[in-house]
Amino acid sequence: MKITYYGQSCFLFEIGDNRVLFDPFISPNEFASSINVDDIKADYILLSHGHQDHVHDAEQIAKNNNSTIIAIHEIANWFGNNGVEKTHPMNIGGKVTLPFGTVKMVSAIHSNSLPDGSYAGAAAGFVVEAEEKTFYFAGDTALTYDMKLIPEQFDVDFALMPIGDNFTMDVHDAMIAADFVQVDKVIGMHYDTFPYIKIDKEEVMEVAKMVDKELILMEIGQTIEL
Questions:
Q1: CA distance 157 to 136
Q2: Which stretches make up the Metallo-beta-lactamase domain (predicted)?
Q3: Which partner for 170 in 109, 165, 195, 196 could form a disulfide, CB atoms 3.0-4.6 Å apart?
Q4: Burial class (CB in 10 A: 0-12, 13-18, 19+), 64
Q5: Domain 2-225 carries which CATH code?
Q6: Cβ(105)–Cβ(95) under 8 Å?
């Protein structure tokens, strides 16, 4: 399973022959200026919620690739009304089987609206169970006891969690969340893009080390294999 990071909370997963993109916010991100959105290929686009810094490039990428946007009902419908031909609406607790595996939508504690200010339903995270690995994409969320339900249903190999604080968990809460989900490997996201969420990378790495967790902070454009 290959993972490419495009900044903020945007990751591209190559799972078998499928390319699965999460929360594309690239073109307005000055730190991702080296990334050409038109070069990104995606079969599926999973959106955790409707805020601009998670959906900005979703419509363009979906139309370029005839991608399927997977999101909570209100967001999927909004993109459908904006000309995206393939959408799959979901809601919290639901699960769908796709060519690359199963996707379960789980709760996230966060506000939610679309770029035009319209109602976007609930914020969400995803648990993806693929043949190679099972992972948890937390989305923008606070620490919540709901996370303890995840390992009761899934054997999670790693998690992607926000660590930027202010709008989401900080690294301390993310490490508690990792315990709740029963993972030792965490890919950090939702940090550094804006002044409110700047982090001290050495400090957050030390926090993870102190609780025996592996925290991975990827460079924009970097690809790793897990």
A1: 8
A2: 7-190
A3: 165
A4: middle
A5: 3.60.15.10
A6: yes
